[in-house]
């Protein structure tokens, strides 16, 4: 059995929010039943292999948020590359909309790239910022109704991983889901969501965010903030891939619980 399926089933077992037993059984049976009935081996099973399109926000002439020497574009790229490696460890393929610090990509460049790759999902990686340095918390953004389950999975996983480990857990705010017509979400052919795991404008978060994932003693334990973000987004993606998102009606305007002012999460 593919390792990503095992990881997905493990994620289901460890969900922060309860999953209906019926849905979990459907997922398990969908994986196990064909293998039992038709004798498929792990290499023969006709399980679609997911492809995750990771979009490190900003880059090139657009640094995103800036806090001293810390540029959001650099954090996003480092996190996205480490996330791709984390997913590859579970045989989940991914592609990146940019792989260096020099590329200036428009929103159209990004979603057209993901569409051309026939990606299963698009996850845009950002780092939030605010005029009030005491604000910290996480936010997930969606636009189309088909995006909402992905945003919810990322939202839940970020909370589970990043709130207890925040510099000030009691001040780490749940900004919930927000519906926003962000460029990269507008014309993606697949479920897409933007993740804003923490606020780099918070001085203690900023201090911890200076350490690159590659400099962490163990990239996937709790030793550094970027690694925690990687693990949170990984958990959210695996959880989403374990579910079967139904077609749904448009959910209308967002709940308006995002940051009340200032710069948004980017294009
Ligand atoms: Zn951004």
Task: Provide the fold topology.
Blueprint (H helix, E strand, L loop, with lengths): L2 H11 L7 H18 L12 E6 L9 E2 L2 E2 H17 L4 E4 L10 H10 L4 E5 L10 E7 L5 H15 L9 E8 L3 H4 L5 E5 L6 H7 L15 H18 L25
Parallel strand pairs: 1-4, 1-5, 5-8, 6-7
Antiparallel strand pairs: 2-3, 6-8
The structure holds zinc ion (ZN).
Zinc ion (ZN) binds next to loops.
Describe this entry's structure for a reader.
With 267 residues, the protein is of the alpha/beta class. It has a single domain (49-242), classed as Aminopeptidase. The chain is 37% helix and 15% strand. It contains 8 helices and 8 strands. The protein has helices at 3-13, 21-38, 72-88, 107-116, 148-162, 183-186, 203-209, 225-242; strands at 51-56, 66-67, 70-71, 93-96, 121-125, 136-142, 172-179, 192-196. The strands form 2 sheets. The protein has a 6-stranded mixed beta sheet, with helices on both faces. The protein has a two-stranded antiparallel sheet with strand order 2-3. Helix 5 (148-162) links the parallel strand 6 and strand 7 (172-179). Helix 1 packs across helix 8 (225-242), helix 3 packs across helix 8 and helix 5 runs antiparallel to helix 8. The radius of gyration is 18 Å and the shape is globular. Residues 14-28, 34-43 and 245-267 have low confidence and may be disordered. Zinc ion binds next to loops.
